[in-house]
Write a structure and sequence with these properties.
By secondary structure, this protein is α+β, with helices and mostly antiparallel strands. Helices cover 22% and strands 17% of the residues.
């Protein structure tokens, strides 16, 4: 497969393109769960990160693997989505800068078409969207377009409290 240029998906970008800039892990999970192509999602932790890049300099701040309805899941013996890897559907990697995301995309491009080809990969904002090598080029494009649209069509929570509201904040309207 080949590197998918983000310009290929400019027509898929929704009303909130800024949502693709440093989104939270919870936002990525929430948006993945909106896709008709996604079966299960699982975020990596420092103890199960297959790439060893979580929270290291130049690495990702979040990485969420997903299984897809477009891939035959009976071909995998592993139980968890992270253990199955990008092959079972794909993953979303979130970086702190576009430079880090682009560097990761360029690294992945070195394996395109070879024995270690891991599928398609696209940079949108500070995220890398990866799809399974088990998908056809058309399926990779369809899935990537779907995810770009969903991620950039939702408002992501702003500020440090993107979990839940913990009661009133210290703002006064006297």
């Amino acid at each position: 497969s080949t590197t998918v240029n983000t310009s290929d998906f400019s027509d898929a970008i929704g009303d909130s393109p800024e949502a693709a800039v440093s989104p939270s892990e919870s936002y990525i999970i929430e948006t993945l769960n909106k896709s008709e192509f996604i079966l299960e999602v699982e975020a990596v932790t420092e103890s199960n990160d297959p790439n060893g890049k979580l929270n290291i300099d130049g690495g990702y701040n979040a990485c969420v693997f997903f299984s897809s309805t477009l891939v035959d899941q009976s071909n995998f013996s592993a139980k968890s989505v992270v253990e199955k890897g990008t092959s079972c559907g794909g993953c979303i990697e979130v970086y702190s800068s576009e430079e880090d995301a682009t560097a990761r995309n360029e690294y992945l491009a070195k394996f395109d078409g070879g024995l270690l080809d891991s599928g398609s990969h696209t940079v949108i904002g500070t995220i890398v969207i990866r799809t399974s090598e088990k998908l056809t080029k058309e399926q990779q494009t369809e899935l990537t377009r779907n995810l770009v649209s969903i991620i950039t069509s939702s408002e992501q929570p702003t500020g440090p409290n993107d979990q839940e509201d913990n009661g009133p904040t210290s703002s006064s309207n006297d």
